[in-house]
Amino acid sequence: MLETKDLTLQYGGSQILNGISMQAAKGEVTCIMGTNGVGKTSLMKAISGTHARSGGEVLVGGQTLPVLPSHRLAQMGIGYVPQGRMIFPLLTVRENLETGLACLPKSERVVPDRIFELFPVLKEMEKRRGGDLSGGQQQQLAIGRALVTRPKILLMDEPTEGIQPNIIQLIGRVIETLRDDGEMALILVEQYFDFAYGLADRFYVLSRGSVVFSKRKEDTDKAEVEAAFSLNG
Which pLDDT value is given to residue 44? Predict the structure, then answer.
């Protein structure tokens, strides 16, 4: 579903990504791992179009995408749950979800009931302002807003960051459900090792803007992945 080839990204004169090549298949969770500052969020921004890539290719369904702004890529099926959630604090839960409809044809601009089935708290609090929600509730809202766009590819950047354990478990179950549906490729950026290992079908570990470890889960074991994460994160 998604492939990058020799993807590079610069901030000013600084080279942040150094030729990232990776693949993410439909019906699988691809996990991007590494500690702070290795380029994980920059990779998500380059794929989603929130920061234009400097070079390389991004392919969706085998088709090379030009460098496009994020709203155009959202129209093409790339959903993004950014680090820090970035919900609109003065809009209600319902209004936050409806912002995701802008990239869809008018005939499809309806919040699916499935969002509330996956995250019941959003239905309970749909008239409350986003800024009044807890961190865990805001994270559920951020994921729900991305799902409203009917993505082919769902990028999730640190969905467990600052979240209480019961909500982490809920988010894990939602990711498993979406994977089992087989309708999208899921790309998970994560530092919580056990959470990532339990969900991932494929691992990429980054160090200094480069891929230093890449294996499918069936071709490795937990100790090897953990060692790569600890050594190169």
Answer: 94
